[in-house]
Amino acid sequence: MPLFANPSVTPVWVKVNKTFANFSTPALSNTITGYTLPAAGVISGVKIKASVPFTGGIIASYTISVGSGANNIKYAPAFQMQTSITATNYQLTDGLGGESQTASTAITFTATSINDNLSSAVAGIVDIWLLISFAA
Questions:
Q1: Alpha carbon distance 20, 53 (integer Å)
Q2: Alpha helices per DSSP H over the chain
């Protein structure tokens, strides 16, 4: 008897695209909702890759991390966005994490800068992939 994958439990990569404007604020850090994980959702991995470097003002460092709730790095630690754009320059984080079995949960993306506010950025695009499945 053949086995068939149940689409609700088979891991799938979900891509989210954000620009410097999504994180712009007159502060050194900003956390936004990047994705809403459905009830019973599980995150098995995260890939972060800049497609356009984050630049502007006198920002000395611009990083993005992935988390939830009070833990801004639960799923992926901070990754440098002021970087060379190449096919292999990305961060891939594995690890298994879940949230509520009965309610959706905001998955957060946190941008942090050094030396200048995030609102000084004038360029930057990041692609973030979440490997999700459901424990239903």
A1: 10
A2: 20-23
